[in-house]
Automatic annotation (TrEMBL):
Lineage summary: Bacteria, Bacillati, Bacillota, Bacilli, Bacillales
UniProt KW keywords: Capsid protein, Virion
SUPFAM superfamilies associated with the record: Protein kinase-like (PK-like) (SSF56112)
One cellular-component annotation, GO: endospore-forming forespore
Protein name in the entry: Spore coat protein S
Length: 323
């Protein structure tokens, strides 16, 4: 038995079924997850109310924090902090787009405005702060001696990444002036970085963010952007059509989605992995090749989406005209 269960007024599950991504126990149909955390009690309470809401909306696979015997969601074991969560396994057979629009609809119905996880209307400030953070990494590597080929490549590509990020921030200045909204431009529950979480057996509440629904749409499309003919592929078009048939995007929504695709989150994530790895696991030639394809898809994005960019007064970035 894990010692955390001594702090909870529940029947102790005795069957351990997994160690990854978290220590997991099974009791009849319920799964219990021992999740290491550094979040505050207030943050955990918000996750509890959100997860409880999704359970009521028919999403029992969302992991829900459990209050301990002291009616708190954070439990100390020695010097470490944990949340104990429970959920049922996902058995949904919906396609990915239908799941995502359904999940966003459930999030629209959430009756409160979270404070700990809200990024709605804050993208520009968050992007600037993130670039400042990586500037510090860049300066550290720039001063590193002796410099490996890998570090030199990284130092050489970083100013380009900053330039792309600044373009996205400038584009957001124009997006913020857009007035053509509709009801689906309100915030909902999304993921910090969406890929295919809704197809997983469980949905981890500690990945939730309160934000515009196109945040998830953009991250889903981002996976196609580095593939030649990726966003014109049948798979990508089917996803977009299925999602927007349920939750159409406004002019503001399309522009916001495009701004997020401009911002080079995928390149910054590679830098995160570089920073945490002692091995040169990336080929910069491959990164640059993929980014060339990504830029080509950006330059024709609205056309490939079947949208006349004149009808939404889209602002075309100058450097994309020359691709």
């Amino acid at each position: 038995m894990h010692p955390i269960f001594l702090h909870y007024p529940i029947q102790v599950p005795t069957k351990q079924v997994s160690e990854k991504p978290y220590l997991t126990f099974l009791d009849q149909s319920y799964y219990y997850f021992v999740i290491p955390t550094n979040i505050t009690e207030r943050y955990a309470l918000e996750l509890y109310t959100i997860a409880s809401h999704f359970h009521q909306q028919g999403w029992p696979q969302v992991t829900c924090p459990i209050p301990n015997v002291h009616d708190q969601f954070i439990t100390m074991i020695g010097k470490d902090k944990y949340m104990l969560c429970y959920a049922l396994e996902n058995n949904s057979q919906q396609n990915d787009a239908a799941k995502l629009s359904s999940f966003h609809r459930a999030g629209f119905a959430y009756p409160y405005q979270p404070s700990s996880i809200s990024s709605y209307g804050k993208w520009k400030e968050l992007w600037i702060a993130k670039i400042d953070q990586y500037e510090a990494l860049y300066q550290h590597l720039y001063q590193k001696r002796p410099a490996s080929f890998f570090v030199r490549d990284f130092v050489n590509i970083f100013p380009y990444i900053v330039g792309i990020a600044e373009n996205a921030i400038q584009y957001m200045n124009q997006v913020e002036k857009e007035t053509r909204f509709h009801e689906y431009d309100q915030p909902t529950i999304v993921f910090g970085r969406y890929h295919t979480q809704l197809n997983d057996p469980f949905i981890w509440c500690n990945q939730f963010v309160f934000d515009h629904p196109v945040r998830d749409m953009a991250e889903k499309l981002r996976s196609y952007m580095s593939e030649r003919n990726g966003i014109s592929s049948e798979q990508c078009k089917s996803f977009i059509q299925n999602y927007t048939s349920d939750l159409p995007l406004s002019v503001f929504g399309w522009k916001l989605l495009y701004a997020r695709l401009i911002y080079p989150i995928h390149l910054l994530e590679i830098m995160d992995q570089i920073q945490s790895s002692n091995e040169n696991i990336y080929s910069f030639e491959h990164i640059i090749e993929n980014q060339n394809v990504y830029e080509e898809n950006l330059s024709t994005f609205f056309h490939q989406m079947g949208i006349d960019d004149r009808s939404i007064n889209s602002i075309q970035l100058d450097w994309l005209w020359n691709l």
